[in-house]
Amino acid sequence: MTSTLLRRGIGAVAVVTALVGVSNAAHARDAEPTSEAVAMMSPGDFLWNDDAASQPKASDVRIVVSIPDQKMYVYRGARLMAVSAVSTGKPGHDTPTGDFKILQKQVKHRSNLYNDASMPYMQRITWDGVAIHAGRDPGYAASHGCVRVPIAFAKRLYAITRLGAAVTVTDVSLAADAPSPPLDAEDLGLPPAPQDPAPEATEIAAVR
């Protein structure tokens, strides 16, 4: 009797584990970030649409972070190619808004301010400690000022950006009354993606 129950218990655990695996796999989708897909996103989700025949040029990539949406929108030229859920700065550690550039990149980085916390695929946007990096997304603003993204998304994003890439952080919802952001970057009034050579990263500072 005990062995039968044990086998049933193991079987139930296996089924639950398989279902959890399917659920987690659904978080990352190679799909067009349509209105419906963006509206269905949950914390930890991201959408990515970039076929192998049309890889983006690093100089064409720009990033927009909407604090009220808790989402990151990645554009290649005027086309929305990816959307990710994010976790920005919590009250008292607000993520600054404005237009920034990627100043420094590091695959393996640890915080000099917060208990040597791991910050994989770090992309710094200010010299006083704000960066985009892989981290926990509880579904709300919870960081010390950085923009946390899912690690699989952080790895892909890191691969297509360069020093000097444009990053806009806004306190305006891009979704507004619609379930998704505009698909055209020009609709947002974004400045042109920088085409000049990448600047040299000459200063090192603590990152949150």
Give short descriptive properties of this protein.
single chain; 208 residues; alpha/beta; L,D-transpeptidase catalytic domain-like; seven-stranded mixed beta sheet; four-stranded mixed beta sheet; 3 helices; 11 strands; disordered N terminus
Which helices and strands occur, and which strands form pairs?
Elements lengths: L1 H24 L2 E3 L4 H5 L6 E3 L12 E6 L4 E6 L2 E7 L12 E4 L2 E3 L15 E3 L6 E4 L12 E3 L1 H10 L5 E5 L38
Note down, in words, how this protein is organized.
The protein is an alpha/beta fold and 208 residues long. It has 2 domains: 27 residues; 158 residues, L,D-transpeptidase catalytic domain-like. It contains 3 helices and 11 strands, in the order H-E-H-E-E-E-E-E-E-E-E-E-H-E. The chain has a 7-stranded mixed beta sheet with strand order 1-2-5-4-3-11-6, covered by helices on one side. The termini are far apart.
